[in-house]
Amino acid sequence: MAIETASFLLGEDFENIIRKFYLAESYKFIEANPQGKGYDFMVEHPSGQKIVIEAKVYRTKIVQRADIVRAVMAVEEARRRAGAEHGRLFISSAIAIPVRDTGKTELIDVRELYKSLWRHPALIGELEALVDKLAPMPWTPEDKLNWAIFGDGYTPANEPEEAKPVAEPEPLPLSGQSLCEALRSVPPSNEGASEFEERGYDAIRYIFDNHFSNWKKQQITDGGISRYDVVARISSKHDLWRSIVINFRTWYIVFEFKNYKGKISQGQIYTTEKYLFAGAMRTVAVLISREGADDNAMAATRGAARESGKLIIHLTIEDICKMLTLKDTGGDPNSVMFDIIDDMLMKLER
């Protein structure tokens, strides 16, 4: 059974809008809820041609093109396996330049979807309400208008100078599944700590290849007192990371790997918190462990956010594997981070 996180529910809402559209257009549903086939449903055009439909939600208005290319490739492969004549991938963001050479799979961004819904005003209202919920970054009316015109080719005027992205790399081969298996295979012990860090590093580099730059391993502070596993600079246009840059006044993210058999304790939180320093624009850490944090560790995590404005994000192996799967299929791995941060900050007491 799927976990009903906010991103999961928004994804269902987006898919339901598209289902309603095809029902209103008198398409016949052939497969309503296929499992593990790489698409959400299959319809039949009145002419008899079969079309596989996939809907993907991104928690940002500006989506990385490499992720879109992966998603289109995955749907095209699913279409071939299903023996359908056509495939259609709907995305909740807008793109500036069309993705070409997609075989018989058509990419439909949110702007094109709005045009398709002109005969169904109620669905346009549902889509507008959904889009407003997707991204945490507040935009001015001018930003929204430019995004509607230029899609991912538009950069908001209030984007921080240090958060501008580096050149976009070529799409990486699908390898998230193997990275997940490698991480899971590491034995939980001190002897496996170095391997867990290496496999974890490989995983986060794959997940965040378009969102961070200047990766450094085994960084030691100037005084030689502290050493953190990995640090990277935010260079993302994703709304989640842009929001973190602005609201937490950070340019750098610290990654720590804990290969403990059970849940980590509050002692590890206090150690990680020492690495965070507002004066160095380094106020956010991602703590990756096998089972997550115990109750005392979560209390310490909330205390760091409440008292010092330091954000510590906990990811388990299962969270990492979920993000790797999303990366492989062209989804938005940041949606997992978004839900974890959203849940913690919404429950934060004074």
Textual characterization of the structure:
By secondary structure, the chain is of the alpha/beta class. The protein has 2 domains: 6-157, Trna Endonuclease, Chain: A, domain 1, CATH 3.40.1350; 176-346, 3-Layer(aba) Sandwich (Restriction Endonuclease). Helices cover 43% and strands 17% of the residues. It contains 12 helices and 10 strands. The chain has helices spanning 6-24, 65-82, 110-116, 121-134, 141-150, 176-185, 193-207, 239-247, 266-274, 295-308, 317-328, 334-346; strands spanning 28-31, 41-44, 50-56, 86-91, 105-108, 212-220, 227-234, 252-258, 284-289, 311-315. It has a 5-stranded mixed β-sheet with strand order 1-2-3-4-5, with helices on both faces. It has a 5-stranded mixed β-sheet with strand order 6-7-8-9-10, with helices on both faces. α1 runs antiparallel to α4. The protein is elongated.
The unreliable regions are 160-172
Distance between the termini: 34 Å
Q: Please compute the radius of gyration using only Cα atoms.
A: 21 Å
Specify the biggest β-sheet: 5 strands, mixed
Oligomer: single chain
Short description:
The chain has 350 residues and is an alpha/beta fold.
Q: What descriptors fit this protein?
A:
Trna Endonuclease, Chain: A, domain 1; Restriction Endonuclease; 5-stranded mixed beta sheet; elongated
Blueprint of the fold:
Layout: H1 6-24, E1 28-31, E2 41-44, E3 50-56, H2 65-82, E4 86-91, E5 105-108, H3 110-116, H4 121-134, H5 141-150, H6 176-185, H7 193-207, E6 212-220, E7 227-234, H8 239-247, E8 252-258, H9 266-274, E9 284-289, H10 295-308, E10 311-315, H11 317-328, H12 334-346
Parallel strand pairs: 3-4, 4-5, 8-9, 9-10
Antiparallel strand pairs: 1-2, 2-3, 6-7, 7-8
Helix pairs in contact: 1-4, 6-7, 6-11, 7-11, 9-10
